[in-house]
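User: I'm designing a mutation panel for CHRD domain-containing protein and want to avoid disrupting the core. Could you give me a predicted structure to guide residue selection? Please restate the sequence first so the numbering is unambiguous.

Assistant: Good idea. Sequence first, for numbering, then the predicted structure tokens:
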Amino acid sequence: MRKAFALPTVAIAAAAFPLLTMGTALADHDGSYQATLGAVNTSGVSGTGMVTLAGDQATVTVEASGLLAGSPHAQHFHIGAQGTCPSNDLSDDADGDGFVSVTEAAKYYGAIGTSLTTEGDTSPDSGLAVDRFPTAEGGSYTYERTFTITEDVQESFAAGTAVLVVHGIDKDGSGAYDGDVMSELDPSLPMEATAPAACGPLTVSQMGTMPAGGADTGAGATSGIENQAAIGVGALAAVGAAAAGAVAYRRRQATDQA
Ligand SMILES: [Cu+2]
């Protein structure tokens, strides 16, 4: 019986090692992604997003226009749901308050995975750090930054469920975030400050498609997701504290660069 047990163990170890190697050399999500921002809440906002991923490093460019001028606009990668956006009318306004809120849109685009801040922390904790988001001088902005992204965000890109969302609308045309409806996320903020203004699924850019064999093997996206999950568990078990140290170092670098 002992030998019968030993053989599968060796086989599992042998199968796992190439996954780890592949994850280190060229992760399944590596490459370029793009999003076309479409309006939500009839904001009139449009724009584009470009994301280049290399391991845990993301270089992000966002261009958006038609925004409330002179005001900060929270922007995030949302992850873990359908990888889609709510429609540009009020058909998703479940509570009838006149806004498609973040909560009502979450079934499409999921929770915050990364806060696309201008400096410092990029975690979901900074989701409403309005002093560290782009301000739309003249109603538009261009954002570019390189930083470290977490494993769950990497997996969402690989799975095709990452969505770029820009927040902040001027529903009543007053020229500021105001009104009687308050945000369900932070009751001290007007709903106008947090409601989604534009949204676009992040899809693999044709220009950035990797010429590797993955696309031709017929293994398909499901295989990629399984590999990604295996890499996540295996890599954490294998390198543990060393990886944590490296991430902390890169975070410091990212902070210094900002
Ligand atoms: Cu968001």
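For picking mutation sites, this is relevant: Confidence is low (pLDDT under 50) at residues 1-24, 212-258. Strands lie at 31-39, 46-54, 57-65, 75-79, 111-115, 140-148, 163-167, 196-201, 203-204.
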